[in-house]
Specification:
The complex is a heterodimer of chains A (525) and B (340). Chain A is α+β, with helices and mostly antiparallel strands and 525 residues long. Chain A has helices at 2-12, 17-30, 33-43, 54-65, 69-79, 82-89, 101-109, 117-130, 133-144, 153-164, 168-174, 183-190, 259-267, 289-296, 303-308, 331-341, 359-367, 448-460, 517-521, and strands spanning 206-210, 224-228, 233-240, 243-248, 272-282, 285-286, 311-321, 324-325, 348-350, 376-381, 389-399, 403-414, 423-432, 435-442, 462-466, 469-472, 477-482, 485-487, 495-497, 501-505. The chains are: A alpha+beta (525), B alpha/beta (340).
């Protein structure tokens, strides 16, 4: 735990990418294989299944620190990180632990799941007493599963690749899918990749950047494949050895939630992996994404919901064909093979290729994208290979302009992480019969200086507090941008929007100039 | 009793904490007649008043803030003056050179205004003196139990280790610290044999005032006179972070010495490599101890985490109330320059 806590601290205390990678490499080379496996497991964002409710953990921390609950709340508001708050409140450390990470995870952490609360409490508290402050913090992070340390997955892949003597892309692939953090796994990871190491293993997703600059700069339209950009769940459908697996981009195995796609898998030839977007779909077009959320929320999928919200896979790429990794073939080839193997009238919908003769024609089509229930275009170079991660150059998303409305800041609350103690989480209101009703929450879009100014405004203009939430004098107007909009009985305003963010601070507008509920209702489709 | 003549000794008016019986303000934020100043940080010492009273050790630094013309009366710690109907004396607060608590007495009733203070030792200023009083006006910049300072000697060792590690990598070490107080405290503690030490002009000006009063600091050179930075320690105000001034140092690592560095988020959002937890304010245990040692009937809590400290004291049988003093920027917000 000593080395691991020091790794955490060292990664946290530099802002230089190369220093971070060097630190990771040093740790991975020196660590016992099982510790290295666990460290990578946590660093790429995997977490043990929920071990115990955070609420319990807070109760024990509060009791140990000898402070009342309300004061823990105040401290959390200042720190903005649950695990850190608990570590800061413990009595000064008397000792530190030399035991390896494997011991702390396998012998101390994971067994917490299977015991009663009283035993858990005793074990957690005794763990705290065996550790120094840095170790407590890392351990709390492991328990709460909020293990983020300022290294991206890509940096971890780079470091592992360096240790294994291979490429980050190969490491990214080997770390997909299901694996157990063991010494054996670590050795395999460093060795040549064994075939079929994991039957369900997906490929790292290729992601697109938003188009920068003008579309004409992409050159000859003939070199590009243009598709509609659908708003669904990005997923890979894998068919291997008579089994079907569906992985979401969040690296979650979601096979059980989509019986339609399991059935589709059975129609596919052996050794096939298709990349696409899962969408609720009826009569040849997508249903609003909110319908999908209705379905995702359910544990049991009854015949009613399956009939109301059927899904399809809008397939746009072929990554594995006849058991072979075909990612390095050109897109045109992959697309042609995908078309050939698509079973007719199935839950596989081939992502339509948009035909146009010029960029101007596409730009005109883009104006009508909303009517087609898509978010714009995907532009992919016909010659492109399927790359790992988010890259510039071959794939671009050319989205439609977002919706925008002017709304008034009405509530603010402190942020978390690096925004701890600053008012950065805002609720905006719009006018409804002379009253401001909450309309959307937004956290992003302001620069540091603007955040500082809004923070100072909130402190001077708080009219009421509800716990951490401050109601402020309705004075500041912001232009909010968002992607989708739909009616929602669960929201005050009767409207829910997707991905709201602050596009601009409208210093030129007064609160009475903000939009009304009627203008916004007019945007509903 | 706090109120034996019906009028409290201090009251809050639009210019600050006012003592009507003695006709003076303590750390006023407006322009007033007579200002008693606890210390020369900008949120406590505002230029524009007609006359100032301060502790003798703090005269030079206050002069630097309020200008060359204004009359400043300087008094030794513990020396009693009579102003109108009250007796007033200044006592060490341990915050920075010349920082004082203000003790006011009228007919056996004693009020003490702490200004900013710390209980930990500091080679650059006189140690905090606990005073008995009826009403204690305390700061609360770090009034939450998450704020507990490590031993300063450990922090200095960590600074040395960071400085040496940077030397190995041929990097400069840029250490941000409040130019009045914190910078000098660090310079009095660091080991100059590790490498050359450079300073920003704002720090160097204060160094000069400190040295004139016999405070021993590590030898420093104004950064304007330097040319080789790898291996050097550079002490600068936090406002230099991310500016053109900083870029001259080529390859460098950044650190901030402040109590706020106890919280990871405040360090990370400034993109600092390191945070060294060292403060010139009392931490949570320090605040509670200071309050207890006054045996005050009532505690007024100004700036910082007022509400939590007041509630904690009230729950522990100590009469306390929050006072909305104007110490701008120190309210609830961890703005690093504010309290430090």
């Amino acid at each position: 735990m000593k080395d691991f806590a020091e790794l955490y601290a060292a990664l946290d205390r530099t802002t230089r990418t190369n220093d971070k990678v060097a630190t990771l490499i040093r740790y991975l080379k020196a660590a016992p294989p099982e510790d290295a496996a666990w460290a990578v497991h946590f660093l790429i964002g995997r977490r043990p299944k929920r071990l115990l409710p955070s609420r319990r953990l807070a109760e024990w921390a509060v009791e140990e620190a000898g402070i009342p609950d309300w004061l823990f709340g105040e401290c959390y508001q200042a720190v903005g990180d649950f695990a850190e708050t608990m570590a800061l409140l413990q009595a000064p450390a008397a000792t530190s632990s030399d035991r390896p990470l494997r011991y702390w995870v396998e012998d101390r952490l994971l067994p917490l799941r299977d015991v009663d609360d009283q035993t858990r409490r005793a074990r957690v508290v005794s763990a705290w007493r065996e550790m120094d402050e840095g170790q407590r913090f890392a351990w709390n992070k492991l328990i709460t599963g909020e293990f983020r340390v300022g290294v991206s997955q890509r940096l971890v892949f780079r470091a592992v690749a360096e240790v294994a003597g291979t490429t980050p892309e190969a490491v990214a692939h080997r770390l997909m899918g299901e694996w157990q953090p063991t010494a054996e796994f670590w050795r395999q990871l460093l060795a040549e990749d064994a075939p079929n190491a994991d039957l369900s293993r997906p490929y790292p997703f290729c992601l697109a950047y938003p188009l920068e600059g003008s579309v004409e700069a992409l050159g000859d339209l003939g070199a590009w494949q243009v598709e509609w950009k659908y708003d669904g769940i990005r997923a890979q459908l894998i068919r291997r050895q008579w089994q079907t697996f569906i992985w979401s981009r969040g690296e979650e195995l979601v096979t059980g939630r989509f019986p339609e796609l399991q059935a589709l898998g059975a129609l596919l030839p052996e050794g096939t992996v298709i990349d696409g977007e899962i969408l609720p779909w009826k009569q040849g077009e997508p249903l609003p994404f909110g319908q999908m959320q209705r379905r995702i929320g359910r544990k049991v999928l009854g015949p009613k919901i399956l009939a109301e919200v059927p899904v399809v896979l809008v397939g746009f790429d072929l990554l594995e064909f006849q058991g072979e990794d075909v990612r390095s073939r050109p897109l045109a080839w992959r697309r042609a093979e995908l078309e050939k193997l698509a079973p007719p009238a199935s839950a596989l919908v081939l992502s339509p290729v948009v035909e146009a003769t010029s960029w101007e024609e596409l730009a005109r089509l883009r104006q009508h994208a909303r009517a087609r229930k898509v978010e714009g275009f995907m532009l992919k170079r016909l010659e492109s290979v399927y790359r790992v991660g988010r890259r510039r150059g071959d794939w671009w998303k050319w989205k439609i302009e977002p919706y925008s409305v002017d709304a008034v800041l009405i509530y603010a609350q402190p942020g978390t992480g690096r925004r701890a103690g600053l008012f950065t989480d805002y609720t905006f209101g719009i006018w409804d019969n002379g009253k401001l009703v909450p309309f959307a929450k937004a956290y992003s879009g302001l620069d540091d200086e603007e955040i500082r100014q809004v923070d100072a405004f909130v402190r001077r203009n708080t009219i009421e507090k509800f716990g951490p939430v401050h109601a402020v004098k309705p004075e500041l107007v912001f232009e909010l941008a968002f992607e989708g909009i739909q009616a929602s009985p669960r929201h005050h305003s009767g409207i829910a929007v997707r991905f709201p963010r602050m596009a601009r601070w409208r210093h030129d507008k007064k609160p009475e100039d903000a939009d009304t509920i009627d203008t916004i209702r007019a945007l509903l489709w | 009793m706090a109120n034996n003549r019906g009028v409290p000794l201090l009251e809050l008016d639009p210019n600050g904490l006012y003592c009507a019986a003695g006709d003076f303000y303590i750390d006023p934020w407006g322009s007033v007649g007579r200002a008693v100043v606890t210390h020369a940080h900008s949120d406590h010492a505002t230029p524009g008043s007609q006359a100032y009273l301060t502790a003798r050790d703090g005269e030079a630094v206050l002069r630097a803030r309020v200008g060359p013309e204004v009359p400043i009366q300087a008094t030794a710690y513990g020396e009693e003056l009579t102003m109108g109907g009250v007796r007033i004396s200044l006592h060490p607060a341990g915050h920075v050179l010349g920082s004082a608590q203000v003790r006011i007495e009228r007919g056996g009733e004693v009020w003490v205004v702490s200004g900013d203070y710390k209980l930990a030792s500091d080679p650059t200023c006189a140690p905090f003196e606990p005073l008995r009083c009826h009403v204690f006006v305390t700061e609360s910049t770090f009034g939450l139990p998450i704020f507990r300072w490590p031993d300063a000697s450990q922090v200095i060792s960590a600074i040395h280790a960071w400085w040496r590690a940077n030397q190995q990598l041929r990097r400069a070490s840029v250490l941000f610290a409040h130019p009045l107080g914190k910078a000098q405290r660090l310079l009095a503690c660091v080991d100059p044999s590790v490498g050359p030490i450079y300073t920003h002009g704002a720090v160097e000006r204060m160094n000069h005032l400190y040295r004139e009063q016999g405070i021993v600091l590590a030898p420093t050179t104004h950064a304007a006179a330097g040319s080789r930075w790898d291996g050097a320690l550079i002490v600068a105000p936090p406002s230099c972070h991310g500016t053109a001034w900083e870029r001259r140092f080529g390859e460098f690592s950044t650190a901030f010495a402040s109590g706020w560095m106890r919280i990871r988020g405040t360090r990370r959002r400034r993109s600092l490599d390191r945070g060294f937890v060292i403060s010139d304010h009392a931490d949570w245990p320090g605040l509670l101890r200071a309050v207890e040692e006054t045996r005050a009937d009532c505690v007024w809590v100004t700036h910082g985490y007022r509400a939590p400290l007041v509630r904690w004291l009230a729950e522990h049988g100590q009469k306390a109330l929050a006072v909305e003093a104007h110490f701008e920027g120190e309210r609830d917000e961890p703005v690093e320059e504010a309290g430090e």
